[in-house]
Amino acid sequence: MTSPLAASWSPEGAPSRRDVALTLLLIAWAVWGISTAETVAWGWLGAGVVTFAIAAGPLAVTRLGDRVGAWFRGIGYAGRTVVIVLFAVTVWTAMSLLDSLTVPLSSFAYGGVFGIAIVVAVELGRALTTQDWPR
């Protein structure tokens, strides 16, 4: 039986096999990045975990999350690609121009990967207990 807590913040339901595979690849990338980094800002990494887990989990099913999700889906694949690329270029440019932001931003991003992985793991665990997986 699905717990009320997990069911109440399930934005997309059970993750697909592709979602799980992509999550595992991103975790491997983040672990590699952290292990090869000269410096990791652990506080920023922790902030990334919490921020992304909340944003992709409980916040995603609020009215604000529904509106943002609807807008993001409404702009289509090309629009989403443009938004993601612009965001990545903005962060990369800030990290290049402001060397002091490199460690905090990269640590926050690695934490974000782990935050998303937590949401995927919770959803996968919920789906496995309800026999709603694999999709």
Q: What is the number of independent domains? A: 1
Please tally the β strands and state the result. Answer: 0
Largest sheet, if any? none
Mean pLDDT: 86
| Number of alpha- plus pi-helical segments | 6
User: What order do the helices and strands follow?
Assistant: HHHHHH
Structural class: mainly alpha
Task: Report the end-to-end length measured between terminal Cα atoms.
Answer: 19 Å
Segments where pLDDT lies below 50 for 5+ residues?
A: 1-9
Helix content: over 70%
Shape: globular
User: How large, in whole angstroms, is the Cα Rg?
Assistant: 16 Å
As a percent range, the share of strand residues is under 5%
Question: Concise description?
Answer:
76% of the residues lie in helices and 0% in strands. It is mainly α and 135 residues long. Keywords: Membrane, Transmembrane, Transmembrane helix.
Description:
With 135 residues, this protein is an all-alpha fold. The protein has one domain. It is 76% helix and 0% strand. Helix 2 runs antiparallel to helix 6 (102-129) and helix 3 (42-56) crosses helix 6 (102-129). The longest helix has 28 residues, at 102-129. It starts with a helix and ends in a 6-residue tail after the last helix. Residues 1-9 have low confidence and may be disordered.
Give the arrangement of secondary structure elements.
Blueprint: H1 4-8, H2 17-36, H3 42-56, H4 63-74, H5 76-97, H6 102-129
Helix pairs in contact: 2-6, 3-6
Fill in the keyword field for this structure.
transmembrane helix; mainly alpha; 135 residues; transmembrane; disordered N terminus
